[in-house]
Design goal:
about 180 residues, alpha/beta, two-stranded parallel sheet, 7 helices, about 40% helix, globular, disordered N terminus
Length: about 180
């Protein structure tokens, strides 16, 4: 997860709130709290950048809340993603996701609610971040759209009802207490 701190503490203080254009050079250092198997070899090319601070760790729940409160963009490049729970949580807080249009990602975001770059296209991700930074109205619109989209598509009230309908439609051959993993014939 990453955020670009810009335009005071955040691109917008609340989803959809108007943002101001920052003075030149106001993009502040961005913290990237991450941890994964190939961490060292992956971060070597950016380790010495002055505006990037790397922390090898996972965020706690309070850390996630603070990151959402103080950032406006959720950078989540991916080569293969199914749903993207962290991305959806960030969208719910009004962060604009900047990600790749791969796997199931386009089923959960669109061009109104996220910056979608082609697979393995770091330049398109960077260009998307620049667009959000340079156009406060675009950022505010996408922030609002991101929150609305995820709440309309993935909120508990939306998901549970659809899942129950699927189980009901499957009929009596699907026993709710069957945990064997076997698929009914």
């Amino acid at each position: 997860m990453a955020g670009v701190r810009a335009r005071s503490r955040r691109c917008c203080q609340r989803p959809g709130e108007a943002a101001r254009t920052p003075p030149a050079g106001e993009i502040r250092p961005t913290t990237l709290p991450v941890d994964f198997t190939q961490f060292e070899e992956t971060v070597t090319p950016i380790r010495d950048l002055a505006n990037v601070h790397l922390e090898r760790r996972f965020l706690t729940r309070p850390g996630i809340i603070e990151a959402h409160r103080t950032h406006g963009i959720f950078l989540c490049p991916t080569r293969m993603d199914t749903q993207g729970v962290s991305r959806d949580e960030a969208m719910s807080s009004g962060l604009v996701p900047v990600t790749n249009a791969v796997g199931a990602v386009p089923e959960f975001v669109d061009s109104r609610s996220a910056i979608l770059a082609p697979a393995d296209d770091a330049a398109a991700l960077a260009a998307g971040i620049a667009r959000l930074y340079e156009d406060p109205a675009l950022f505010a619109s996408m922030s609002r759209a991101a929150a609305e989209r995820v709440r309309g598509q993935s909120a508990i009230g939306e998901v549970i009802g659809r899942e129950i309908s699927l189980f009901t439609a499957a009929g009596p051959d699907v026993a709710p207490d069957d945990r064997s993993g076997a698929v009914p014939a």
